[in-house]
Write the structure tokens for this entry.
Amino acid sequence: MLKKTVLVHALGLAFGGAVIGMAAMSPAMAQSNASGSVFGTVAPGSNVQILIENTDIGIRRTLTPDAQGRFVASSLPSGVYRVSQVRDGAVVGSVDVETSIGRNGEAVFATAPTASTQVVEVTGTRTTIDASSAGSNTTFSARQLAALPIGRSVEAIIQLAPNTTTADSRFAGGASFGGGAASENSYYVNGFPVTNPLTGLGAAQLPFGAIAEAQVLTGGTGAEFGRSIGGVVNIVTKSGTNTWEAGGLVTWEPKSLRATPKDIYYGNTGTPNNTATDGTLRLARAENTRDQKVYGAYVGGPIIKDKLFFFASAEKTDTEEGLVNGFRVATNNAAVGWRERDTKLERYMAKIDWNISDNHRIEFTTLGDTPEVNNVNSGFNYATRTRTGVVSSGSRLSNVDSNGAKINTLRYVGNLTDDLTVTALYGRSKSPHENYFTGYNPDLFQIASTVDARAPGLNYTNPQNISGTIVAPGAEDIVDSARLDLEWRLGAHTLRGGFDQTKIESGAAGDLTAGGGTWTYSRASDPTAEIEGPLGILVPSPASTGSALGSQGYYVSRDLFSTVTNSFGEQSAWYLEDRWQAADNVLLTLGVRSESFKNQNDSKTTFLEMKNQIQPRLAAVWDVNGDSTFKVYATLGRYSVPIPTHISVRGAGRSTYTSQYYTYTGTDANGAPTGLVQLSEPLSGNNEFGQDKVVETLAARNMDPTYQDEVTLGFEKAWSPTLNFGAKAIHRKLQSTIDDFCDVRPFERFAEANGIAITNPLWGNTCQTFNPGEDNEFLVDFSGDASNLTAVNLSAADQGFDKPKRTYSSIEAFLEHPFRNGWYGKFSYVWSRNKGNTEGQVRSDNGQADVAVTSTWDYPELMEGSYGYLPNHRKHQVKAFGFYQFTDELSVGGNALIASGRPRSCIGSAANPGDSPNYANQTFFCGGATRAQNVITPRGSVGSLPWTHRWDVNLAYKPNFIKGLQLRVDVFNVFNSQSVANVTEAYNNGANVSSLYQTPLSYTTPRYARFSLMYDRRF
């Protein structure tokens, strides 16, 4: 629960302005994730009307103010509107206002004219703060994005906003908003959800030049928004206007001007078993090259003036890289140690806007985001650090580890009356995932071996040119989404409500091991001791077979892995909201949202469902001076996030994950073992033998979703026409989470206490989805008969877990110079603290992207020492960006980030696991010279990574003698500060200290330059 005192103070400050309200009452305003509103107040009268026009896009609305003179025009496309006051048929006052997805436009008339007074016309747009909004959002216009030195992606936009940080480099996408996990965000384009449906990590994108506005929300969102406990990204695309325009661009990032990336060296563990690797080169990167070109074009204009408009944009990004593809100690560098990678990213957007009448409008949008990666592998010689050999293999990956999609949407906006507006949206997206390989033998096992696991004189070369896992044929995600929103203005109240539903189908989701499996070679330090298999299962010692290699501790495991399955999901919600002008300058927003989530397995049997999860949302804004120059605001809300379809991949599908142990006498030409002597049957840590799961046993009953409570308190002040400043505090507390629980011991204790015989032949380590730290009711198959299940109620104490903890607190301060006198700039500083015992749906400290099925809660011993600073914690962040126009021809821009480093943790294996499964490198037991000497090392307690310092600049030249032409150069990371972004936190390799502990996994991007040639022409 949120502390009562925090709520009382926050809302008390916001509501306190009611007693000193002096201005005329402004109408309650509503916001949409794809449009804005124009509002204001005039002197009332029976002969008064308000005319709102945007001549660029043919929008024209005529309104009659209410008895108090208030008027609102909602669901308007972003842009500049001329608002005219008409009395007795004559225009007596006009003002220009600007709307956007993050800002409502208030029309303020200097006088209350009559038909006989002189027309009052304001020639510029009014630049005050938006006193109708309490959300924590940052909105970027196309002009700002075009002027700043940033990457041409949504990820780059996100990092401009306060309270955001990049996701772990091992994740395919996403970002952390306000301390949340990378999978806990929502992304929209023109109101349609484009979040990756399978993983929740990132989203489909559009051509960068097609973005009209981008809004990043990090807190305080209203009841309209859901399915996020991190942040929300809103993108609104450009549209055609009454003026034809066209243009194009070419950008080039030459490899010759790219700084040399740092090599990666092993950490210094100081242990005897790692003397051969400590401090030595692990991965050569100095030879890496990268050259990127972008080609883009757009065209837009009227098909029928004021009625029908068209806009289309397309961009192609071609990135050519040369990469060292193998670690120095790898045995297959002669074949695949060098990779030529060509990434082709094609994106398009086309939009048709049809003004059916002044009060009815239809928008059709089609988007395409089609990433393709082509790899060609050959050899690399570490001794000479040169490329060698001929091409050995290749692959083409289409939308693999990416977020591409093809999307079509249709949106309708209808102003049924001056006070009643309806919007409706339907869309479908398809995301196929395909991989093709040359030189690949699907029946040839991979070979895995560390240096100390190789017997002298034997061949351990990995003949398989494809490593790791691959996508199954036919993999595709399909999303169908629809929503309906109504808005009704009733006096001082603006009532809103809506319903939305999203259905997801993920076909052939999951992965399988390339080549069908892996031979993993190991060596026991004590050949006579039993081998520890999956989850601590003991296997006879290598010496027990009497083989020569076994007596020296050498053994091998046959590892199989496949999680390919079909998966389905459904997400629906309804919301109600009342934006109430409670006093002259106090706006209250009272809302409630109800979320329902459902996940189904390949037979469309529901195994996880949460219905009607009620989430209240409250907000208050105090327009202190009554003139939109100073506001104090507060919000309080509850937010939840669904689980993407990936949960079925391991949790509900026919997954296989087994290891079978042998000794061997030799190896063949392909590195496979010969002379095998079996030490064990196939073993599975989670009983994944490819069998059907008993659906009813997969998840606890009547669970709560992953949800958190949030409170914000802030102020914003327009000090002058050239300076805004403000500050806000955010506090978020995770109240519940969903993950899987793989500990069989509580069920065995229950069976023993209740006299139940366990006869299920597959009894053992299985996983159930549950609410950690809460009482849970499970259905359990003790007998092996799916029709004879037992209800088992386990308290939190029975399961042995504390409640999930994740708190995020931050204080943000900012200064902003609106675009005036030729320049724009914004500076923000955020102090924050992100602590807890769980990061959320994913786990960055081991790079685990299995959403809601991480190892975090698999058994209680894993949580010892788990409380501390979380991976997304950044105590200090400074962000600054802006641009300055020296003349009409010459301008400069800048973008800076200074941030403290990520906390470092040590995850190892328990010294004395007792009867726990004792996963390798998943506990917070570390620090010993051997595993037996490990002690609890709390999360985030081994220091932090270095600070990040990045400075980006650009220079643009627009010659007057060629109108529309622009020549530009951007330089990123000017001072070439390459800091460590993440490290290997796994501590143990068997009983010994891992040679990879604290070895860097990635560095921040080195300095590079981008040259651009752009041409924009209006006809």
